[in-house]
Amino acid sequence: MDRVRQGRPGVRRRFGAAIAVGAAAALTVTALAAPAQSADVKAAYTKAADTNAADVNVAKNAGFEADLSNWTCAANSGAAVTSPVHGGTKALRATPSGQGTAECSQIVSVKPNSTYKLSSWVQGSYAYLGARGTGTTDVSTWTPGNSSWQQLSTSFTTGANTTSVTVYTHGWYGQSAYYVDDVSVLGPDGGGGTDPVEIPSVPAGLAAGTATSTSVDLSWTPVSTATGYTVYRDGTKVASVGGASTTVTGLTPDTAYSFQVSASNGAGESAKSTAVSARTAKGGGGGGGTVPKHALTGYWQNFDNGATVQKLRDVSSQYDIIAVSFADATTTPGQITFNLDPAVGYSSTADFKADIAAKRAAGKSVILSVGGEKGTISVNSDASATAFANSAYALMQEYGFDGVDIDLENGLNPTYMTKALRQLSAKAGSKMVLTMAPQTIDMQSTSGGYFQTALNVKDILTVVNMQYYNSGSMLGCDGKVYSQGSVDFLTALACIQLEGGLDPSQVGLGVPASTRAAGSGYVAPSVVNNALDCLTRGTGCGSFKPSKTYPGLRGAMTWSTNWDATAGSTWSNSVGPKVHGLP
User: Active site residue: 103, 398, 409, 499, which one?
Assistant: First the structure.
């Protein structure tokens, strides 16, 4: 849009000759069931945990969050994986092969004449946990395997001169991979430094905040010893976060969910919190503000380029979203400002702000568009992302803008623009209106930066009004080439977005309001209406007909309200009623 023109020996001995000659089948004998803990052993664990405030987890990297740091796995048999995990984001996966048991071990520093509780969580095939070199009686425990996480526990007492112990875990010959997570060697600090003391307590105060149609904000009371939290939706892990709040996204509109959270550190993961219920809002997509289900968007020009000069109060009531064009760059990367052009005829900035307030009072959304053909705003670093978010929010507060429109026609960085928009959303709240106006080339593939950004912020995105003009011929979602200026160009290219991950409520058709508004690609309002019918009802199509209809399609957009007024408001008076009458 133009501003101007627009294998371990000890293990073998323990099982004796039966294992040596019995092969893997001998492992199924019921006599090998894992030993139960005696009451006195359990009591010893409890006493140690309750009475020795100095006890710490002397194992390092106990949750494998630093991959295999501090651990040694025989024959490179182990690796850190991200699934399945018990706590945190990683766990150990080790795979026996041949005569190897895939042992992974760590030497830990201990105090002489001290008792330690040894435990870990395991999953998969045969899994063993033990300690050797204790100076007294070496210990081990094991399980024949489980499809879910279970905890192995035992204890040992060090000898009079013992200052280090080898803690190990391993599988068994010929068996499949086993998984280990959240190892704990709990006892007096042996001088080697510590991982967190104990598994953190269960988070309290879990509460659901703002809910959009596809997301729910959650927060809880921080746990002092936690290094991270795991969020569960209806019992299924959906997120791992470092702080005591998050937004769960990708939800279904008008649906009830149950959420829980647990706390974790290097010692392990706590039990899940008391559940809290929340229901998403009705309607598809994120964002929203006062935007109706089907909306007409128009760009208002803050400059005079030959089109009718308008004040905001003069913009047709058909428009539901009015994008003030454009924000200006500053000398600070990413930062934006707004300068009211005297050519528009406002006597003061206060008068302009009053027009914004009046449009909002009438149920319209007024947003600030960033970019245009000559826009030079660049967000390509953490600092510039923060500068963008802070300055955009400041302008929203100063002028009363409902949100922003991203119309950067010279490219954008999806990583940092995503960060910028999420920071802005966190400040502005769930009512922020977020729109985008990419060129056709920007939305040809989900690998493109614009498309990536749209998908990255889908939970807060109101609508993408792609510019179906000034582009020449393009590929449709069926792989065929379509020429601009036709109903097929609109429908076949919209199909790419509709089938590429955006909700229908997040897709709009962007077209020029008149032949003078763009260099090429103008279509009559009747063609726009046919395209809307084709996509939402399956009627009015050209040679391309989508495989299904999208009745939730958001609507249409035009450049600009000024050029529309120049042409006698023909576009808004024709397309507006069609959009508002969509199913």
Answer: 409
